[in-house]
Amino acid sequence: MRVRKKPWADDFINDHQEFIVLEPQQLQGKWQERFAKDQPLAVEIGTGKGQFITEMAKKYPNINFIGIELQTSVIAVALRKLVENPLPNVQLVLTDGGADVNEIFATGEVDRIYLNFSDPWPKKRHAKRRLTSPQFLKGYQMVLNPTGDVEFKTDNRGGLFEYSLGSFNNYGLVFDDVYLDLHRSEANEDNVETEYEQKFSAKGPIYKLVAHFKTEN
């Protein structure tokens, strides 16, 4: 889906760089400097308009959150939410997070990675672009600390979710939780919804998995 360009977005982003980072590689290994407190670091890749990450930050003030988004007009909306209601434990990043994750974060710097309703890239020839494909998993493994994990949600079962189960398994991740209908499970009590999730959950189940990388003995 093509995102409509917002003419105000570029200037707004440039005027509020206390909340958004435009050159994230310069902060590799130093992300805690952007926050009021040194706390566990959680990263959402594909943060969209920011509902998930801002609500998570309110719910878990003892965690620092970074929301990464590629599209300027989309992250500008998330940024506006932060400007209107500042949160000391949220920072936004304008970049291609999936491709650059190991250039943005140092080894072991991240405690959790969230992948929420990522682009399913339905054609088989585009499978390597999926954020749960092996090339991206390699990057996540590099930046997550030994006890860190990946949390993934989607409404796309036949393509993305089943593909992701296989991709995670083949890469050697250990599954902590797998939900075939998140909103009808006990985990829904603590579930924080994205904008997309709120809009489309009535049309079918939401699938979720949480997994971690095996650590060497």
Classify the helix fraction into a percent range: 25-40%
Look at the helices and sheets and give the structural class. Answer: alpha/beta
Strand content range: 15-25%
Mean pLDDT: 94
Count of distinct strands: 8
Order of helices and strands: HEEHEHEHEHEHEHE
Distance between the termini: 45 Å
Question: Explain this structure to me?
Answer:
The protein is an alpha/beta fold and 217 residues long. The protein is built from 7 helices and 8 strands, in the order H-E-E-H-E-H-E-H-E-H-E-H-E-H-E. It has an 8-stranded mixed β-sheet, sandwiched between helices. Helix 1 packs across helix 3 (72-84). It is globular and about 45 Å long. The chain starts with 8 loop residues before the first helix and ends with a strand.
Give a short overview:
The chain is of the alpha/beta class. Helix content is 31%, strand content 23%.
Write the layout of secondary structure elements.
Layout: H1 9-15, E1 20-21, E2 41-45, H2 51-59, E3 64-69, H3 72-84, E4 90-94, H4 97-104, E5 110-116, H5 134-143, E6 144-154, H6 157-171, E7 173-179, H7 195-200, E8 207-213
Parallel strand pairs: 1-4, 2-3, 2-5, 3-4, 5-6
Antiparallel strand pairs: 6-8, 7-8
Please tag this protein with its features.
217 residues, alpha/beta, 8-stranded mixed β-sheet, 7 helices, 8 strands, 31% helix, 23% strand, globular
